[in-house]
Amino acid sequence: MKHKETFGDKNNQSMEDIMNGLDDQVRFSKLTYILIIVLYIATTVLLAVISNSDSTLNLFGNPVPLKTLAGVLSSLANICIIFLVVFYKKTGFITALVILGTQFPMLIRKIFVLHVYGSIPGIFTNIFTLIAAVIIFVSDVKLAKYQKGIRKQAITDRLTGLLNRFACYELMDDLIAKKENFALVMIDLNNFREINDSKGHTTGNEVLKVVAKRWCDCANSDDTGTLDFVTRQSGDEFMLVIRKYLDDEDIMDTIRHFEKVLEEKVTIDECEYYLSASFGYAEYPADADNADTLFTYANTAMYEIKKINSSNHILRFSTDLLKEENTLEMERMLRTALEKGNIYFNLQPQYTMDHKLRGFEALARMRDEAGQIVSPGEFIPVAEKIGIIDKVDSMVFKKSAELFGRLLKETGADITLSLNASVKHLMKSDFLDELKSLLDTYDIPAGNLEIEITESIMMDSADKALACINSIKEMGIKIAIDDFGTGYSSLSYLSRVPADLLKIDKSFIDEMNNSDASKKYVAAIVSMGHIMNMEVISEGVEDDAQIETLRKIGCDFIQGFIWGRPLSAEDAEALVKGM
Ligand code: C2E
Ligand code: MG
Ligand code: MG
Hints:
With 579 residues, the protein is an alpha/beta fold. The protein has 22 helices and 19 strands. It has three domains: 20-155, no CATH class; 163-318, Alpha-Beta Plaits, CATH 3.30.70.270; 328-577, EAL domain (TIM Barrel, Alpha-Beta Barrel), CATH 3.20.20.450. The strands form four sheets. The chain has an eight-stranded mixed barrel with strand order 11-12-14-15-16-17-18-19, surrounded by six helices. The protein has a six-stranded mixed beta sheet with strand order 3-5-6-4-9-10, with helices on both faces. The model is unreliable at 1-10 (pLDDT under 50). The structure holds ligand C2E and magnesium ion (2 copies).
């Protein structure tokens, strides 16, 4: 009630009043109304003047009596009356009745008292105009009633009788045109599906009707202090427009009130239901300046709060949430790329310190619909999050192994293919079978294949990971520990991993020549690797000074832009064949 003083009785408007207000908006301006009346008066006065005049008008050299124009003026006056009825409906009709009504006594006086018989046609014209006005008005009232019926159907939700989303959009468009602030709240009932599934759709529908009734009463009351308008979007989704608030806290208060009303027990067929909902909102004009974007933003906030599944069910939109949207877009892109086989690979060469090719690391690549390359830094985390990383890995495994097997056969080169495996992929029960089939299908000796795993693998599920790594080793395939130094694995654990190669992360190589301490740190990693019987490779080597330092330290291999960027399949093939 706190805003009643501020906004006066504006807040008393019911939702029906608001909708009718939108429908009844004047389509023609008051100015035109006045102009028509002025034109009518002018023609009537002119008519009176010329009907008593014997003057003539010179028309192309011919004298024409002014009286002959009387018919023209009289038609013009009647058209003004018809215009009023057609364009201004009830107001126009009443005005027409007043005008014609005042004219009758004057005309009758002229004929019967003053004996001006020239006014006889005038009285008939008035009668006919009156009949025309009545016919137009009555048919218009019928049409308007019919149109109102159709409109009511179009903006009313059939199941609940609440207004629907068309009404909500109509209101939002009107508020935006008037530049009036408002908040759009998207509401979705939580776990409504369970009621539908367990009790059937009829009960589900009854629940929706109860919710709609409660919220409709709530919007039509003054309880929230704001001016509220609630509609059903579809299914268990509702939209709420909140107006006449002072600040964000008012919006929250109103939403909390709707939430409280919803959470009261619902009883249907002697069964009790306790409902809750998720509310996401965005504000005009602070968050967006058009209805569609507001709708999207409010929806984004609503889905976010639903997903978080906390005790708080209300969230305001913020641009941070759009990043989440990008994930959805990336997910869609990834799935399409997988379906169409559009995940491919690059091969980045790895070299010995005296610049001999050790082998290649296969790196996943993806193009979006526009043909732009998407960085694995963007799509790999999404693929991991949504659980399709194994499919991405496998596509890279197969495509790169096919080329690699052929290269080995054609050149006889003794090089290694390193494949990145994600934790989820490695833990799959058929991972070993997949590797076996890879070796068999593409005729690759196990010793020429290497699987790169990151430290995080070992932290997630240590024993299972170790068992799997041991099985890979037993097959004769090499193991590399990728991005070493970025995780938190303990030394004791690391010593149990039968890895062949330790890959020092680029971040250490970047820093290495900046201080003596950083250099010593890299040197320590190299020594440690050697102590644990691993060879050591440095990732992301970009300049000669780094190569120099790494040589002194005793690093075994390097992989970096200085000697080789990730290459296309054709370029990698040319590199091996040119050796
Ligand atoms: P990673 O396995 O550590 O791969 C090395 C990354 O460092 C590659 O980035 C490579 O292009 C980049 N790099 C190598 N040398 C240099 C250098 O000198 N300078 C700079 N600035 N960068 C260098 P990319 O291709 O973007 O891959 C990023 C990460 O994505 C990979 O890091 C790996 O963790 C992941 N990834 C790539 N392909 C796959 C895949 O097929 N499966 C899985 N699970 N992960 C993959
Ligand atoms: Mg790697
Ligand atoms: Mg790495």
